[in-house]
Amino acid sequence: MTQIHATPSLRPQDAANLRDSLTVRAGAIESAIDTLIAPVTRGGEARVVDAMRYATLGGGKRLRGYLVTEVASLFGVPAVRALRVAASVEMLHSYSLVHDDLPAMDDDDLRRGQPSTHRKFDEATAILAGDALQTLAFEVLADPATHPDAEVRIALVSALAKASGAAGMVGGQMIDMEGEGRALALDEVRRLHALKTGALIRYAADAGAILGQADAATMERIAAYGRDVGTAFQVADDVLDATASAEELGKTAGKDAAAGKSTYVALLGIDGAAAEARTLAERAVTALDGFGAQADGLRALAYYMVERRS
């Protein structure tokens, strides 16, 4: 199987530190989500809440949430605030996965190694759970518990709305669906994934800087990092879809080719796509010049994005 190796590659000690950090943060984000989506034992809405919890808890690497917390740590943001925003972006991401898996979209029965939400419950419940997760994500950001400054909260809400709507994730999904069965040019594929996947990953990085009330120049550097690491993630995903097993991925493998989608692998080949991912990871790391050792976790994450096997 092809594996992407960044140059320089993620060093063993850095990889071990990142794994430990990811595990700890994932647990903290999981706890925050568990609190924010509390179980409901009575009333007709209990089923949709169960579906919301099923879709968000008990799986996933929490890479987007990790990005929020890691960037926020550069600015000394209190952990409780960063974790609320991390939980919010994971809710938004989970909503997108629930809807992506529906028969009308990607029609996938497997997610994170478990039955997709619409298979575990039913299609109508899955749609409602996705809708509720999306709205809850914004409710969390708008709550003063996330940040006492209303301008910061508004900036978070505005940035997530742009990243997740027609000019971001939803627009990218539409381009993806429209592109099935026809050949897209490389520039079109880049734009597709910059919207569908990259926009939310960039938002996760931006959100940490927004929480930290970073100045405009620093925001731009964080945005450049998030943009490149988000694209690197998607290029690596295309390679994994073509080379990894369903057991490794936790979802159905080989679906891009089966659906006739234009991907980085289809246009560049596996080796060419791997090279593209390496370039993007290196460029993301370069954007962090000047942050010092405090940003080593973000540097390691950029390389991990293209070396992972799931």
TrEMBL record:
Cofactor: Mg(2+)
Family matches, as InterPro entries: Isoprenoid_synthase_dom_sf (IPR008949), Polyprenyl_synt (IPR000092), Polyprenyl_synt_CS (IPR033749), Prenyl_diphosphate_synthase (IPR053378)
Record GO terms (molecular function): metal ion binding; prenyltransferase activity
Presence of keyword Nucleotidyltransferase: no
Record SUPFAM superfamilies: Terpenoid synthases (SSF48576)
GO BP: terpenoid biosynthetic process
Record keywords: Isoprene biosynthesis, Magnesium, Metal-binding, Transferase
Classification via CDD domains: Trans_IPPS_HT
Taxonomy, superkingdom: Bacteria
Keyword flag Chloroplast: no
GO CC terms in record: cytoplasm
Family: Belongs to the FPP/GGPP synthase family.
Protein name in UniProt: Polyprenyl synthetase family protein
Highest classification ranks of the organism: Bacteria, Pseudomonadati, Pseudomonadota, Alphaproteobacteria, Acetobacterales
